[in-house]
Specification:
The chain has about 240 residues and is α/β, with parallel strands linked by helices. It has a single domain, classed as 3-Layer(aba) Sandwich (Rossmann fold). Helices cover about 30% and strands about 25% of the residues. It has seven helices and ten strands. The strands form two sheets. Strands 6-7-8-3-9-10 form a six-stranded mixed β-sheet, sandwiched between helices. Strands 2-1-4-5 form a four-stranded antiparallel β-sheet, covered by helices on one side. Strand 7, helix 5 and strand 8 form a beta-alpha-beta unit. It is globular, with a radius of gyration of 18 Å. About 40% of the residues are buried. It holds the Pfam family ABC_tran. InterPro entries: AAA+_ATPase (IPR003593), ABC_Gallidermin_ATP-bd (IPR022501), ABC_transporter-like_ATP-bd (IPR003439), P-loop_NTPase (IPR027417).
Length: about 240
């Protein structure tokens, strides 16, 4: 199957080694523009390491990363937003004030702050400080921070961790709305039901290897596919490209 949209991001035989341990092994994947891409794998599969390479937190040992048709460079971080691990927020500040501290650095007007607060449904948070936010509100504020500079690519690492069912539903709706606004999303998760309801395309990795990549098909049993692939890391399965 050919990609409906051209790839915004490509990884070509990317590996990451820490000492003698190969955490990511010749990983090659394609993320089309304006889609939600779900990166699946068990805990310790290499998902977070992969995302950290895409955001420049760590450098690949070998291989190449391409963004919008050119070799990835740190300049591309201007077009990439990310929420990896805990949201980078100040607990003593309101949602607006947290965004204001970043908008001043980026030279953005207050109107952009109000736009992203509306996007993540925090415009009514008022004077409530972030330390008193629910986990879901904190996650949404972290995403608002990542969206502030109008990125073309948003990277989310296990964004539903710690959320209750209401928070998960709200976050799912937000993520699904982003491609319509020109934002491509990569999210990692081990919650198959959430990815099934959110993603357009998936990649399954285990032991640092990409074992499957393809579009989610109507009626596909994602849990069965995941178990077939992730439980047999020595057998690579071909997905659709």
């Amino acid at each position: 199957m050919t990609l409906v949209n051209g790839p915004l991001l490509e990884m070509q035989k990317v590996s990451k080694r820490f000492g003698k341990e190969n955490v990511v092994k010749e990983l090659s994947l394609q993320v089309p523009a304006n889609c939600v891409y779900g990166l699946l794998g068990p805990n310790g599969a290499g998902k977070s390491t992969t995302l950290k390479m895409l955001t420049g937190i760590i450098a690949p040992t070998s291989g190449s990363i391409w963004f919008d048709g050119h070799r990835w460079s740190r300049q591309d971080l201007k077009q990439i937003g990310a929420l990896i691990e805990s949201p980078p927020i100040y607990g003593n500040l309101t949602a607006f004030e947290n965004l204001k501290t970043r908008s001043l650095l980026l030279g953005l007007p207050d109107s952009r702050i109000h736009e992203v607060l509306d996007m993540v449904k925090l415009s009514t948070a008022g004077k409530k400080t972030a330390r008193n936010f629910s986990m879901g509100m904190k996650q949404r504020l972290g995403i608002a921070i990542a969206l502030l500079n109008r990125p073309r690519l948003l990277i989310l690492d296990e964004p539903t961790n710690g959320l209750d069912p209401v928070g998960i539903h709200e976050l799912r709706e937000l993520i699904r709305s982003l491609p319509r606004q020109g934002v491509t999303v990569i999210l990692s998760s081990h919650l198959l039901s959430e990815v099934e309801q959110t993603a357009d395309r998936i990649g399954i990795i285990n032991h640092g290897e990409l074992l499957y990549e393809g579009e989610i098909q109507s009626g596909q049993n994602l849990e069965q596919l995941f178990m077939d692939v992730a439980s047999t890391p020595d057998r690579r399965k071909e997905g659709y490209r």
